[in-house]
Site-specific recombinase XerD (Vibrio xiamenensis), 399 residues
Amino acid sequence: MAIKQKITNTSIKSLTVEQGRLNDTEISGFHARISPKGSIKYYLYYRLNGKQRNYLIGSADSLTPAQARDLAKEKSGLVASGVDVQESRHEAKRLEMRKSLTLGKYLEEHYKDYLIAMNPKRAKQSYQCVANNFKHLINKPLDEISAWDLQQWVTERRKAGKAPATITYAFNRLKAAFNRAVEWEFIDSHNLNNVKLIKEDNTRIRYLSQEEEQALLSAVKERDSRLRDAKRSAVHNKAELGQFIDYFEPLIIMAMHTGMRKGELLTLRWEHISMVNRYLTIRSENAKSKKKRTIPLNDTVYSMLEDWRGQNPEAVFVFEHLGKPVEFFQHPWQTVLKEAGLYDFRFHDLRHHFASKLVMAGVDLNIVRELLGHADLKMTLRYAHLAPEHTAEAVRLIG
């Protein structure tokens, strides 16, 4: 049962577990509590703007009754002037936490789990993209990372010869992490919207000449042959290993003859392909436009898929490696580009190559638009200049 008495050394020493609480007779709300285990703590109870608070002053192990009384007087004075000392303490704790929350700690302890929950397949890639690209900021408090820090990073990346798309991708992954930090109240805001990025020219069209196309395919075949020889030597096996040593050559053939985006290729399942009707379906959830579309299979793709399916009868995804869907293939891609002597050519440019060959073969631009999955004709018109015979014929009609 609580008792009322001035809090002193004597009264504190005589406080029993059965009494539970000692209310001071001089300072309103100042009291001491004893736990069932005998530990004593000092508190200040108060009301402010209709809210009830019980402010922890400290433990009797570290504060004397006189020290606790002085603190109680100080806090009571602040309350009388309208300060919510409990809220001030919480705010101080939040500020202290923010100072200790570095980018690395935030990524590891908070953001990684969020990425895994939202998209398990892409979580590792997104996490490593931020962690690897911004190592120089990993030990810096989250709320101290500024637009200037990132503007300097952009400048250094450009000096190192990194493509605008590569820089933008990494920056956007970091910005997404900061957006979540604001939502979760780890920081009040960020100014990363002020960072100026180099915009890539979307009108750029890079396609392969006949000689370049042959060089690329020859480099792919050469890679296949090297891996085949290495595998046979490793297991002393002279048996036939199949038409393709792995997913890479089928992937290149498919990209070159369908114009599919990388994301569409890597999410393509065998169930999305009708070998009987000779077409594949790109599901809306896997398409950039979020619209379903079908692409016919020409003889090259059809023949490749027959052989590739025969090698992987149990596979769920068309492009799998060691039983798992393919996620990265940058190393083999860069290797064959170097061997083929191709420069300034991205994997995405195989899509341009597909479209360019269609247009140069006289295919109507609207059909090209449908095959590529463009939302409107504006994007497809980038290829119009590749069909000069059509514009010449149009002018001749009125001659």
About this structure: Residues 210-396 form a domain with the hpI Integrase; Chain A fold (CATH 1.10.443.10).
